Amino acid sequence: MDMSFYTAAVGAQQQQRRLNVHGNNIANVNTNGFAAKRPSFIALMNDFMTGAEEAELPRGTGSFMIGADTSFRRSATPETGRSLDYAIEGDGFFALWDPTTGEYSYTRDGSFTMSSFQRQVPPLEGGGEEMAEPEMETVWYLSDGMGRFVLSDEGRLIEVGDPEVKLPIGVFDFINTNGMLSTVDNRFIPIEKNGPVQQGAGKLLQGCLQVSNTDLANEMVKVIESQRSFSYALKMVQTSDEITTTVNGLR
Fold first, then answer.
1. Torsions phi, psi of 19, nearest 5?
2. Pick from 92, 77, 97, 80: which is nearest to 158 by CA?
3. pLDDT tens sequence across 62-107
4. Burial class (CB in 10 A: 0-12, 13-18, 19+), 136
5. Per-residue pLDDT at 142 exceeds 80
6. Cβ neighbours around 33 below 10 Å, total
7. CA–CA distance, 85 with 216 (Å, rounded to integer)
8. Backbone angles phi, psi at 128, to 5 degrees
9. Under 8 Å between Cβ of 198 and 97
10. Buried b / exposed e along 217-246 (16+ C-beta atoms within 10 A)
11. 159 vs 114, 121, 132, 145, CA distance in Å?
12. CB 60, CB 48: distance < 8 Å
């Protein structure tokens, strides 16, 4: 089989993956704090190697999308008038802690709310015998509304008394933000190469939200490029098949 057949087939498959990335960016153009993704490609070596979909590919198989890097390019932070909305002017992330899993994650989406939490009331000194059942009280902590609590600049939960008062929300950052794992609910989890977490230099803004940094015009152009490349790759598959058919007919 002509190698152009394999090169075109892999090219069409990778353009489909690229289209999925840009389509997801467009779908999140109105998602607060969303960070757009940028597909990254490498040229497959002219050798037998593991390529697309973990299948061994023959020589001359074109390019392969190794992943989609996250662009933390700054975007606008319009005012919302809601006291529990926060944005970061500059670099940095909000830190979230999930009490059910113990997972720490980071986000630029500051559309927070209050979540109730039951804690035991400490006994009074000199109060005599301990009660049979501990007394519980309800406190309100700053949350992302999905069961995760927002951390302060000291890494503690933030108790909300008066929502109108500016809360001590922490701004955290990393030496290198490239390669952070993107997970659900617009959150990111650092990996080893990001380095240890540190205090961020960004300024905390109350009553504001960061909008998506998706450039709609650029994404539409990339979608058209992907569609055209996909159609050209399929045309190349068809042409390669016709050449092979012609050669086989000469025997």
1. -60, -35
2. 97
3. 788 888 889 998 899 999 989 999 999 999 999 999 988 999 999 9
4. exposed
5. yes
6. 23
7. 24
8. 85, -150
9. no
10. eebeebbeebeebbeebeebbeebeeeeee
11. 9, 15, 28, 15
12. no
What amino acid occupies position 31?
A: T
How far apart (Å, rounded) are the C-alpha atoms in residues 92 and 105? 13
Find where tokens 């109060």 sit: 127
Helix (H) / strand (E) containing 95:
strand 94-97
The residue length of the chain stands at 251
> Residue 176, Cα to own-chain centre: how many angstroms?
15
> Which residue type, as a one-letter code, is found at position 26?
I
- Sole residue written with tokens 């992943």: 67
pTM value is 0.79
Nearest-angstrom CA–CA distance, 48 and 200: 45
Neighbours of 43 (CB within 10 A): 9
The 3-state DSSP class for residue 244 equals: helix
Pairwise CA distance, residues 31 & 211, whole Å: 7
Element housing 66 (H / E) = strand 63-70
Residue type, 109: D
- Residue 98 structure tokens: 């999930």
